[in-house]
User: Fold this.
Amino acid sequence: MSSSAAATFSSLNAIPPPPSSFSSPANDKLFSSSFPAASPFLGSSHKPRSCVLSAPSPGRRSHAPVVAATAPNAIKEKLAQSPASSSNLLITKEEGLVLYEDMVLGRSFEDMCAQMYYRGKMFGFVHLYNGQEAVSTGFIKLLKQEDTVVSTYRDHVHALSKGVPAREVMSELFGKTTGCCRGQGGSMHMFSKEHNLIGGFAFIGEGIPVATGAAFTSKYKREVLKQADCDHVTVAFFGDGTCNNGQFFECLNMAALWKLPIIFVVENNLWAIGMSHLRATSDPEIWKKGPAFGMPGFHIDGMDVLKVREVAKEAIGRARRGEGPTLVECETYRFRGHSLADPDELRDPAEKARYAARDPVTALKKYMIENKLATEAELKVIDKRIDEVVEDSVEFADESPVPARSQLLENVFADPKGFGIGPDGKYRCEDPKFTEGTAQV
Amino acid sequence: MAAVFQAFGTAAVLLPANDSRVRLLGSFPGRKANVFEVRSEKKIVSDATRVSGRGQHLITNAVATKADAAAASTGSKSGHELLLFEALREGLEEEMERDPCVCVMGEDVGHYGGSYKVTKDLAKKFGDLRVLDTPIAENSFTGMGIGAAMTGLRPIVEGMNMGFLLLAFNQISNNCGMLHYTSGGQFKIPIVIRGPGGVGRQLGAEHSQRLESYFQSIPGIQMVACSTPYNAKGLMKAAIRSENPVILFEHVLLYNLKERIPDEEYICSLEEAEMVRPGEHVTILTYSRMRYHVMQAAKTLVNKGYDPEVIDIRSLKPFDLHTIGNSVKKTHRVLIVEECMRTGGIGASLTAAITENFHDYLDAPIVCLSSQDVPTPYAGTLEEWTVVQPAQIVTAVEQLCQ
Assistant:
């Protein structure tokens, strides 16, 4: 496979994946009948430098990792790329409308969150996603319901894109029992079993191993449980600050080692609260860290949903085919502060203005109108519909009940016998006060 | 690491029982057979014939575990003999055969067979993916186990030494314990985290840690400690079948205990304590390796005319306050013997729980013997003095019963 010279998006070929590490050449499918003797060597096929490899697979000396494909503006200074240059890409009208609606939903919802926060309807740490919608929409709208998404504390829009109803997300933010996590998670812990959203994590980096585990399950189902059609992928979203964290590197290693079906998406918005990415990172080009672990690394313009979508297609396809993980660095920006409690004084207004001019929602709108995919009126209909959805979600959340005391102890253990045996010899969960939430545990 | 368990094979052990169940250790080549190494003023040398001077009928298992109590009391020869690490492996293997979603992950669990051979040959039988050799990244592979558990698998994560799980504290505390709750009950995490801990023979401070005190506050997890081959297998199986995250504490020095266990399938309850020796004068609560120091001391105490009741609490979180409470109500005196650190250890929590619930039944303050609050020294003599020795237990009981 040749590498394309032009930096377009069919450039997964630019870095050759490690050669197949199965011992028998005929057995190069990932769906091997892996039981005892035929068990494929689960590990890197790169030959160590000096010693003879004693593992079953002889392996080949790998090619020196080639610099993976990048968008032309890999360097931070050359940021002024016009969104309209994505006009070479084709999306259909239907696809465009779906993308537009999703991004408008994300934007309107987050704006409403800010309002509600300042009106005292939600509390704590609330991190808004304004400006980054292209990344969420670009990736998640390509996924199936069975695919898994793992996010961080900036997770409202990931939840919405994945399909969690706005009502449930807003209720959760209000701390009501109708929220997607019964009001027990809050802004930073959005979960949905139905839509396969496994968090929502407050500490950065701690979701990445969980995502790796979800990808491991997918591979396990295919290879051990013999569900040959299981091609579920996992997408892990996290930020630039996380990329200096050990868990990130440990999981890049494991995912590449076992060829897990996972896509690591870095939402590089240049700032970790008040710490500029450039002040925190010795080599700020995060995409380069992928090839160091044996997976392709991409750098793309995260303010342009169409560009994100094209690379996402490649990465997701790669994972589905069993070829392993991909690292995608999306250059993006958050229009608001880190959280609603952040005064956002450190960032240069000129920088903010530059990115505001690349607003992904207006960019897509402009693209669709210019390319005759939709009229202004059609898009306004969508805007209005989304406004109604968001208003409705607030009403629903307002009217929903707060959790009753009885909910306090219910979900601590999946098996409530875990509360143990009380002095009277009965399991504590059998105590009638347990269901009232007043039992002594 | 493989050499470790070989060298430490001769832990001082006595399983109190009628004759047919006595098992003494020290059957390794090069070591004297049937010798207890009790590092106290009195060197006790014992063999099978001397033990029978008690004449009491003793039950080694929890009151609630039915089938084997009958087998033990009849002194039948059914069942098979094995060592504790083999019992763990047997339990693990049976569960892996029973449910294909059960898998193991950890360092050197696969091809190496586990640093204490708990997973020996399992990778050959079940494949490299089901018995996964991980890179040295505790936090991440524990998190990976949690993610796998949330998406349908039932992983067992092995910490090569429990102390290494300190590196996984982020995942164990934040994700393992909490995610069932913060997801509103949507995701369950049926993970088992296990590994050897405790003070070994001159392993040094960092390899001699007791993490039960650090983990006990984490809401949403259960902690159990095994001490005999019987309960090791039973607890392993119960932990795997449990829908809750369970941390199973094993002890480096107990892996070579030998016992005869039933051929039939059985599991032990995760929440129940085990009555080791019923008695009248004082309740001694203990777990893991200290059980053996206590039983060693019990021999001396019986010779002196005391009648201690020994309970292996087994469930470190939650405490089985029923068994413990009944005992306190009977004897009115409590001695806790543990290997945990004094400060904030399991003993401290247990003292608080008993005081809260059974204060009226106590005739004397609860005495808690724990390890010294020092990093475990390398020197053998110093190390001896950091953990509780049988002589101290005898003294404490004598004082308590005055």
